[in-house]
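User: Please predict the structure of the protein below. I'd like the answer in structure-token form so I can feed it into my own downstream comparison script.

Assistant: Understood. Taking the following sequence of 115 residues as input:
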Amino acid sequence: TGRREVGLGVVEGSKEAGALVRGLVEEGGVSFCTDEGSQRRREVGEMVAAERGKEDGTVIGRVNGGEKVGEEGVKGEGYGVDWCVNALEVEGGDLLKARGWLKDWAPTREEEKTR
């Protein structure tokens, strides 16, 4: 990485990276701009992260206080918000494709706990 090349060391995890970014923002050295599309992907990502799933891959979400059993995608404990938002960004906001991306590439919450 670029950090390694200039002798700054490697950032090991999101907590460490978050602390670095937070420090820059607090110092006034960095600002972030978000657009409507980014905000929408974040909202949908949060909803996907709130879903839980059955082991056979069917999604179980909360709809108007009831349960909805639906498409294939989320397994077990589901995925973290950041993974869900990233999947939506990669797949251009397409929810079904994002669920497929999560299934193929993202660790579940349970897998993240064991890391």
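That's the full token string. The CA atoms of residues 83 and 93 lie 13 Å apart.
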